[in-house]
Design goal:
Elements: E1 3-8, E2 13-20, E3 24-32, H1 34-38, H2 45-67, E4 76-82, H3 86-102, E5 107-111, H4 112-118, E6 130-135, E7 140-145, E8 151-156, H5 162-172, H6 179-187, H7 210-222, H8 229-255, E9 260-263, H9 270-279, E10 284-285, H10 297-313, H11 315-319
Parallel strand pairs: 1-4, 4-5, 6-9, 9-10
Antiparallel strand pairs: 1-2, 2-3, 6-7, 7-8
Helix pairs in contact: 2-3, 4-10, 5-6, 5-7, 5-8, 6-8, 8-9
The chain binds 5'-O-[(R)-(carboxyoxy)(hydroxy)phosphoryl]adenosine and zinc ion.
Length: 322
């Protein structure tokens, strides 16, 4: 039973986990820094790095304790190599290196985006091929996974990421940080037809969310307080999720993919999940809620399925820097 310990510190979650066979989560510890960053309206990289430094060793010990495994029973130690905030990544990399060195274990560098997709293998039997929609705070991509290791980039955002658009619109509406879950909640009581927002017309499988964000801003500027927050949230969400779902289903149709996989923090969005279930002609998978946003279990899964070279040389890693 190969089992990996993984460490994730790419942004504002200090996380460690132990996963067996890339699917069975033996432990998953996530220490969120949201409360520390909320007062600033977003993540402050230097504050995040220092906080990771204070907590990462305790988080690793907790994950190992909860797993019931001894270090000698591990196949290796995985860490998020990027993309992410350089200072926060460095703390996780250093902690993982030290642990691997102390216990004479192999060290595996994992791409964060690939890890988000691998969150879908946790606690299921799902396997490629499939088309994946990766929607996080920093990325929005449609990928074709032919195998565990081989991914082809079909399209991506030309400006803001979907999660970033959620966070920026939430700030406009005075909903604070993080914006995604706040808009998701509020939109449930709003009228998605109250305002008409553009969905951003870009060719092929690429996306653009900056026009949508600006349209919300212009509408807010014209309204007098109190803002109809719920209606604005519902209309923004309607436009954002509509284009994500439409293009992903079209990609799956063109490639004759037998399944769609949704990954990244925005995969937790209830409207996105519902639209996919209602509209997709093929089965749609998304991770359990706790594995949508940043966690280390997905990193351990990527180490298992993609191995040392695949994790760093994967299509996902090289193509996203185009
Ligand atoms: O994957 P993630 O945890 O971190 C990155 O790798 O970026 O994604 C965080 C993003 C944030 O922008 C957050 O607002 C968004 O995911 N998010 C959501 C929801 N939960 C988190 N967006 C929409 N609806 C949600 N329920
Ligand atoms: Zn992430």
């Amino acid at each position: 039973m190969p089992a990996y310990l993984a460490v994730e510190t790419s942004c504002d979650e200090t996380a460690a986990a132990v996963v067996a066979d890339g699917r069975r989560v033996l432990s998953s510890t996530v220490l969120s820094q949201i409360d520390e960053h909320r007062q600033f309206g977003g993540v402050v990289p230097e504050v995040a790095a220092r906080r990771h430094l204070e907590t990462v060793n305790a988080v690793i010990c907790d994950a190992m304790d909860q797993s019931g495994l001894k270090p000698q029973q591990l196949s290796g130690v995985a860490f998020t190599a990027g993309p992410g905030l350089i200072g926060t990544l460095l703390t996780g990399i250093s902690a993982a290196k030290a642990y691997a060195w102390a216990h004479d274990l192999p060290l595996i560098a994992v791409d964060h985006l690939l890890a988000h997709v691998c969150a879908n293998y946790l606690e299921t039997e799902l396997a490629p091929p499939f088309v994946a929609l990766l929607v996080s705070g920093g990325h929005t991509q449609i990928l074709h996974f032919e195998s565990y290791q081989k991914a082809r980039l079909l399209g991506q955002t030309l400006d803001d990421a979907a999660g970033e658009a959620y966070d920026k619109v939430a700030r406009l509406l005075g909903l604070g940080y993080p914006g995604g879950p706040a808009i998701d909640r509020l939109a449930q009581t709003g009228d998605p037809r109250a305002f008409s927002f553009p969905e951003g017309h870009v060719a092929g499988f690429d996306f653009s969310f900056s026009g949508l964000k600006t349209a919300v801003l212009r509408t807010v500027e014209k309204l007098s307080p109190p803002l109809p927050q719920a209606d604005l949230a519902a209309c923004f969400q309607e436009a954002a999720t509509k284009v994500l779902v439409r293009k992903t289903i079209e990609a799956a149709r063109q490639l004759k993919a037998p399944a769609i996989v949704v990954a990244g923090g925005v995969a937790a969005n209830t409207a996105l999940r519902r639209k996919f279930q209602e509209q997709s002609p093929v089965p749609v998978f998304s991770p359990p809620m706790q594995f949508c946003t940043d966690n280390a279990a997905m990193v351990a899964g990527a180490a298992h399925f993609c191995g040392l070279s695949a994790a760093l040389d994967s299509g996902v890693y090289s193509r996203q820097k185009r």
